[in-house]
Design brief:
CATH superfamily of chain B: MetI-like
Helix content of chain C: 25-40%
CATH class of the largest domain in chain C: Alpha Beta
Mean pLDDT of chain C: 88
CATH topology of the largest domain in chain C: Dipeptide-binding Protein, domain 3
Mean pLDDT of chain B: 77
Structural class of chain B: mainly alpha
CATH class of chain B: Mainly Alpha
Low-confidence stretches of chain B: 1-16, 296-314
CATH superfamily of the largest domain in chain C: Dipeptide-binding Protein, Domain 3
Structural class of chain C: alpha+beta
Radius of gyration of chain C: 25 Å
CATH architecture of the largest domain in chain C: Roll
CATH topology of chain B: MetI-like fold
Largest interface: A-B, 69 and 62 residues
Number of domains of chain B: 1
Largest sheet of chain B: none
CATH architecture of chain B: Orthogonal Bundle
Strand content of chain C: 15-25%
Number of strands of chain C: 22
Shape of chain C: globular
Distance between the termini of chain C: 36 Å
Chains: A mainly alpha, B mainly alpha, C alpha+beta
Oligomer: heterotrimer
Distance between the termini of chain B: 41 Å
Shape of chain B: elongated
Chain lengths: 326, 317, 552
Amino acid sequence: MRYALHRLGFFAVTLWACLTLNFVLPRMMPGNPILDMMAKYKGHVTVQALQAIEVAFGIDTHASLFAQYWQYLGNTFTGNFGISLTQSEPVSQVIAGAVWWTVGLIGVTTVLGFILGTLIGIVGAWRRGGWLDGLLPPVFVVLSSIPFFWIGMLRILAVSKFMPTFPTSGAYAYGATPGLNWPFIADVLQHALLPGLAILITSIGGWILVMRNTMVTVLAEDYVRMARAKGIPGWRIMLDYAARNAMLPNLSGFAMSLGFVLSGAILVEYLFNYQGVGYYLLLGVVNQDYALVQALFLLITVGVLVALLAADVLTAIIDPRTRTGA
Amino acid sequence: MATMQIDAALPRTGAAERPVWRVWRAIRSNKKAATGAVILLLFVVWSVIPGQIAHENPLAFAYGRSLGPSATHLLGTTASGQDIFAQLIWGARETLIIAFVSGVLSTLLSMIMGIGAAYLGGWWDHGLNLITDILLVIPTFPLLIVIIAYYPNSSLIPLVGVLVVTGYSYGARQLRAEALSLRSRDFLEAARVRGERRLYIIFVEMIPSMTSLIMAVFLGTASYNVIAAASLQWIGFGDPNSQSWGTMLYWAQTGEALQTGQYLWAIGPGVCIALLSAAFALLNYAFDEIGNPALQRVSRRRSRYAAPWRTRAQRVR
Amino acid sequence: MRRLKLIGAVVTAGLLAAACGTSSGGSGSSSGPSGTLTISDESGDTWICQFNPFNPNVSTEAFGPVYEPLVYMDTLKSGKTSPWLATSWAWSNGDKTLTFTIRNGVKWSDGKPFSAADVVFTFNELKKYPALDLNSIWTFLTSVTQKGSDQVVMTFKTAGTADFYFVADQTAIIPEHIWASIKNPATYADVHPVGTGAYTVGSCTAENIKYVANKHYYMPGEPKIETVNYPAFLSNNTANAELADGQAQWGNQFIPNVQTAYVDKLAGNAYWYPPTVNNEIFINLKKPLLDELPVREAMVYAINTQKASSDGEYGYEPPANQTGIVTPTFSSWEDTSLAAKYDYHYDPAKAKQILEAAGFQMGSNGIFETKSGTPLSFSIVNIGDYSDWVLVMQILQQDFKAVGIGLTVQNISSNAYDSDLFTGNYDLIYATEGGGPSPYYEMRQWLLSSNSAPIGKTASSNWERYDNPATDALLDEYPAASSAGQHQIVDELQQVLLSQVPVIPVTESVDWYQYNTKDFSGWPTPSDPYAQPSPALTPDIGWVLLHLKPAS
């Protein structure tokens, strides 16, 4: 119980810290978004027109910082994130449009990466010193140290050279009308293939290493030896005895990376023009769209916290030891 | 426990030269470590004497534009007439500086926040640990982008600063866990009983016995930072006037090197970044093997909570 | 040139039923519009499916094809006019009164008739809501009223011929019967725009805007193309690839190595990059040393504009000259004898000579110093996102160093840049001004003192803070002057630029324009520059669409 309160307290403080960071950062930065608009008009806009635009878009930069902070906290808790200056529509609407693409692409590949990586790690540790164990971990160590975007660049080049009609950008073809029909779904899957593969390759290595190393440790435990001595089939020992216990500590790592799904993969989404959360975050930053950046950053942090909370609960259910408070 | 026996078997005195010796032995005995070390050494040499290797001025717009490889321009020239080979050679310096400086600084910060928290205990531990945990949970790369984008003049200092502040938490967490487990060990108890001062215990007893983990933290951070910095530079958040591989990739991308057939312009710096980052990662991997006896031979050491933090949940992508 | 710009939202708008109420008359042509034209223009953002022509974020999406102005003015022909929604116009009362005769028989795309009342409504809406008045029209207008059934009378505070461009060509006319009930027109989304134009918005998604021909358009036989796709390209690479292989036929793209990467790839591919304004260095005239003319003169001789053009802009943006006249677009305005008299050209030795003659001494570090030892070192502010400009900065740095002037380059984010530019927080800054249908417009932006503001205050233009009553008087005389008189005034303005050097033009900013002649004809070309050819420019995109037709 004490442990649970402790954790909840931690989540609350983290949330507050993130909210405050969110508030402070944009205000420390030079320039303002209205000037950006003005720049687009190459100086034809008068100061009066600018003030009128400020009022129209609800950017009141003249209130005191403290008042702005309270207003900001209030707005956040009522789910009012304001109007995105660059999108000319409510931030919540922008995010609603972006978030599912990210969840679809990054979420699916993260889960796939975890499952594949864990399986390879299990088998690698089980057949320690075998060819799989000798080959895969080092290969993935090297693979995951190659800058992701650079592999992406080369892959786009290769595809456009050898399969010029294969899509390398966007979430679906621009002519397509979104809807739940096969041609559209096939189109979406095709567009997701390259970025998805890229994420898979760069994320799988980490899971392999972690799983392999915990597996190795677990395999040395007494109960595993005991199971062997009892003559239980090898694959059952591997899966039921060793892997299950070895997975436990990896769950919170997995939960965290699920949480990070929402942050999108900024570079992936940028390179492949995939209009998810990461892409909007990047462009919000470039265009100084406070409202959008704040809401996205908050969403990402909340995503991580919720995932962590879920992992805590799950671990407590599976592993009674944690309940006593580790 | 097995690990304790190993620790106990090693001499406690002469801690000063032991870590160095251990690192050397580790590198020699492990193929992966040796590969990593050789690559790293090569790059260090490059970055010390770039002028001896490439004779052209990497910044001068002095040559024909978009030339192919030739004897005078080994890798050809950029779309604005700069020598690619010279840029590649000169680019090593800044990339290495970013890796080492940010790696060392963030390892130091990790040590202060991690070991400090563990040793001081009480409210200090709570406070420092809370900050670290928050930074661990907040998505680093987006934060990195948000901060660096707003920096009025993107030179190296803000880049390194942001990398350090956002990147230390993972190491601090590891070091704290290790320090906590060390705190109750016999040799530290012994030192306390002898009446040694706190700082003496931390610096002379504790830190040397954590060398391999500290080393691993440094290598992991450096490897991560090489890619993080290159990524930031590639999207255009670096100083476009700087001479580094990330910046080269930025120019190759804007000059559409791959589309216009100037493959070497984009491939060169990419390979170098990958090699450097892999060098750090290979050394790190080797250290993991050496530092964690469980991975070498059968052991009974438990690492229930150490494991999840041993990989970075947040990748640069 | 990778320029991250504003982005759009992922909104899926439903199909717009192009409800053209009345179907009274067949248009002149029997065949009707056909074919699909695709535009390739990387904006780095997805589309916002809003078409409010007065919202700076989306104003380019509808102005031209859907909303139309009164008159078309061709910048590339020094402002040659053609009737659009107005059939004729006349100046009176010492060029202070402008009377438009509005076209008859025009219908809005919802079938309601268009009239002079809509025009009057539009202008008064801008007066009522200053946030809409992006060209500051009401700083020079006093009233807009209707006269008779089809005439609109505008009165100006002073002679208004120079402002004709803004009221006639740059203001989109909106329907009163829809906008009159909009409470906040500045943020009005206008998802289903009702305009007079040759096209309506057929459908809009974040990825593509599909314009479809307005079958009841008032110009006989127009438009000839049935569908225009304007996809949102988020990266240069993709946009360039689609152009190169012919999936898109009209481009506004920067293509490195355009000959091999575009022209040679497909038969019919061609490009033309006409320059319209300058990219120039603004010199902060309120800073010590920079307020000394010899320093500024030496800078002009120091800069290798040819190299800035070839290595910085890959040769696509031509070198500029100190007269400020963009050639060849405005060559007829250039005072060549004056240019020859001052004879500015790249000459590092001459630059050093000027500095020595002005009493500067070469310091030990190769940088000139004043007698009191202050080095001749400056910083230049630039937008870090504009990679071509960053290259130009590197070239400038090397050029300046060669003549003994120190230059630090600050490549900063566009937000910080805008703020520095407007408030005068810089030594030197690289920037570009808005132009117009003659060189006068750019020069007025550069030189008119009332556009400026004290250091620290926001200046809408004239960022170098040039202040000369005689020049102001020249600029004020221009609108009322005869054609010859206007040329005379521009000559004198060139004299100002040459003798005072308040800004240093380095390269000329061009319209990026690629086109394919295989499936479509009627493109603007160097021999027939009937419009600014880039599809990103309003209302020119609409004017070009009225000239294009499927190739037979």
